[in-house]
Amino acid sequence: MLYLNLENKLSDNNKVVIVGAGTMGAGIAQVFSLSGYDVSLYATSERSKNGALASIRSSLERLCKKGIVEQGAAEGALSRVKFVNHWEAIAEAGVVIEAVPESIEVKKTVLEACDNYLRPDALVGTNTSSISITRLACFLSDPSRLVGLHFFNPAPLMSLVELVVGVHTSPTIKEGAVRLIEKVGKVPIVVQNSPGFVVNRMLCPMINEAFFILGQGVASAEEIDQGMKLGCNHPIGPLGLADLIGLDVLLSIMDVLLEQTGDSKYRAAPLLREFVDAGMLGRKVFRGVFSYE
Ligand code: CAA
Hints:
Belongs to the 3-hydroxyacyl-CoA dehydrogenase family. By secondary structure, this protein is an alpha/beta fold.
């Protein structure tokens, strides 16, 4: 196949564009700005812009309070995040990361739009938690430059990034991505493209099982979570974690696992689907398994 030449060295400019200003986009923007990058955060509405700004501010405040980040560093980080709503910003960036909702159609639109403006030396990352990297790569004219950069929620606190390599991902991009992730203070694990990658393939069925247990009336939500917190030293129980991740995100990961493997062990619990149908999506709407009013 004939692709653009990516043998050249990757861009070493310090400009990053994050497309999508939801929970993950804002968290990733904070991680990069704290490491000295100039971040353009692409937000489609005033509402998402204000939400992202509030979440970055509050997270930085908490990190300052704990002495993890100095006041000056937090102010610097905040000043390095600017909000954009035009694709031209892509043309200046050495790194572009999409963190838009977990829908192949939405990601296709975004990747195709970015493609028109990408620098020839830019690395493109996708924060997808379940969609095939190989499939997403085909929305770029040069699929070799796409790599999965799967951050975990809350991105400013979680150390891991799954670095997902698709069929087309070039070694230059993979190695550049490893360096990039280490530069922002995270630990990468390199994973071949596969349904659910590594962490979600284990984590999501465990959380899904908690919904089966709850639905069958075996124990209350509080008791289920207490079980995993005290019995396995998890920092948060599976149902509380579902609320943090978003029940819609969790359901879509289970559906992708089932669809891509055909293995019924990945069927979503009926109660999980019921919560999603009811709009009880977790912390982001203040109501999921638990209430956050
Ligand atoms: N920024 C900065 N600080 C934060 C924060 C953020 N975004 N979120 C929480 N904190 C701080 C709080 O301020 C609090 O500080 P103090 O102890 O000084 O009060 C501390 O972290 C603990 O927070 P909480 O009291 O609110 O609640 P908690 O004790 O349950 O901790 C947690 C929250 C850090 C998120 C912890 O529960 C945890 O680590 N949970 C596991 C998270 C996890 O597994 N994430 C992966 C999800 S899977 C995923 O993301 C992949 C996917 O594709 C679905």
